[in-house]
From TrEMBL, chain A:
SMART domains: UBCc (SM00212). The keyword ATP-binding applies. GO terms for molecular function: ATP binding; ubiquitin conjugating enzyme activity. This is E2 ubiquitin-conjugating enzyme. Keywords: ATP-binding, Nucleotide-binding, Transferase, Ubl conjugation pathway.
UniProtKB/TrEMBL annotation, chain B:
Keywords: Metal-binding, Transferase, Ubl conjugation pathway, Zinc, Zinc-finger. It is an enzyme of class 2 (transferase). It comes from the Eukaryota. Residues 443-460 have a biased composition (Basic and acidic residues). PANTHER family: E3 UBIQUITIN-PROTEIN LIGASE PRAJA, E3 UBIQUITIN-PROTEIN LIGASE RDUF2. This is RING-type E3 ubiquitin transferase. It catalyses: S-ubiquitinyl-[E2 ubiquitin-conjugating enzyme]-L-cysteine + [acceptor protein]-L-lysine = [E2 ubiquitin-conjugating enzyme]-L-cysteine + N(6)-ubiquitinyl-[acceptor protein]-L-lysine. GO terms for cellular component: cytoplasm.
Amino acid sequence: MATAQRRITREYAEIQSNQLEGVKIAPIDNDMFKWNIELTGPKDSPYAGGTFKLFLTLPDNYPFKPPILSFQTKIYHPNVSNDDKGSMCLGILRSDAWKPSCKIAAVLEMARGLLLEPNPDDAVEGSIAEEYKSRKASFEKTAKEWTKQYAK
Amino acid sequence: MATATTVPPAARERVFCHECRSEWYRDQGGLVCPNETCRSDFVEIIENNNDPRQMPDLMDFDDSDDEDDHYRHRHFPPFAMLPPMGARSRSPGGTTVIRAEGPGFSYVTTRTTFNASRGGSGTSSADGEVIADLFTTMLRNIMGDGWERAAGAPGGAEQGQGDAREGGDGQPHSPPPSYGSGARLNPRNADAPQAGDVPNPQDITSFLASLFGAPGTDDPAFARLFGVPPGAGGDYVYSQAELDRIISQLMEQHSGNAPPPAAQEDIDALPRVMVTEAMVYDGVDCAVCKDDLVLNEQVAQLPCKHTYHFECVSRWLEAHDTCPICRHPITPEGRRRERRSCSYPITPEGQRRERRSSSSASGPGQPALSFSTTFSGTPGFPFLGLFGGPTRPPQPTSSNLPTTNQDSNQQPATASSNPTHDEIRDRTACPPGSFPTEDDEEPVPRYSREQNHDAGDNGPRHHHDSGSGQGRSAFSNIFRRRAS
């Protein structure tokens, strides 16, 4: 716990001093283990113009276990589950791929990178992945509509 | 019972009393025996194809004598229907429906006829059939015809219930409640609608579940019987989508194919080095706690030359045998191979065993078993990891393992969008080029799905990934890669 607290505080300070593009962070109620995240949709993506709220939960034994990232804002994306959990399938966050040297900043950057370039081969929403691969125009149309509707 | 078609609505129905054997017209006497001394409600409407008068022995409930009364017809009350095991076999008579109806109710029960060849041993198969049949009847009686709707089961012999309330009496006929004979469990007033509800099939499911001490839906037969939504019931699945869901769940629960822990002695044996000025100058930190390393501090150095506070890295290695930066294992090459050959990383049993003894090459029993129950369709491939290992040609030792420059140890955390492949490479840690390929000699046949299809061919086999494409999940890909 102490290790986790120290490392998280350090990482938080680092992110504050070196702002990530399109990412805003705010620990909830000074609890360093729960952060509110705001991602702005990348310019060249169907999510442009949207602001997506996420919730980052850091485990007590961070960095030995990976953080958990979930979308609070509904988003039409192959790698984000389309349910009330909004869990994001991010390769580095999987327990078999996580390594302690990985930092929160890297996780957030990858999350935003996934908005720019979804990974349909590692999808949680199979039908959206299929659409992304075979009918991109239709995918982008829906993604834009959802962005307009939910991510304002 | 095709009552409606065989009896025109205008025809007068005759009713037969089973108690006093008298007969009357239904529209005159109703459905209670008009005989002053009888007043029984055990009556039956006489139909063309079902004449109760043809069954003279029906009322003979005394089964203490008449051993030679071979064709004994009897009516079993709903919960007394099961004959003693092995005592009777089914008569050719089959099952008939007894019904009674009135303005506000209709009552139906089934009558199963048996011959009473008691004393004989009775063939077990016939008895099994009878008992199964009776059980079905009993279920149906308990639950009313809602059961049939819910289960979609074939009608069987007792299809009379559905048209039980068809009346030829010309009376105003608002749909009356229909009761299975289970209603007879309570004292019953034939003149008035029965109290109580027709049991809900769902309630019965849970009732049976508690009765048998196990989730009723765990049995596929039960699931079908009670109309559990298709695809899943408890831990059973009947569709590919549900299987995938369970697999992902298992992978999450068991940390997927996360690297197994390192042995404590290997962790303790990590060399300690002093932090040099050069390291401080380069701003090397401990990648676990992210604190900068302090000059002359003693730190642990992994085989890949990455350095950490000992406490920090040992906590990680106790869970996963990988470098927190480059994922290189600390277990020496030789023993890594051995460990892999005796355990299957996905099962917690395997991991625990590994921690306890890193030397013994215990049999493949437990991990393989627990795995093949999950993948009953492909019992062979769990053994891939078990059989692949020891037959490989010797690998180069750790001397030519990749060493990482300490300056570059803050490598960006990418590399895992396709973790399965990298993962496996990392875990097996074969230097590029020495990774065994399909062309390696394999003196022992490998086990795979194809092997299952044509068992008997024991020769060395070479498998190619492109060979058996269809319906392969990402999961089996992992094993394929592992094997190749």
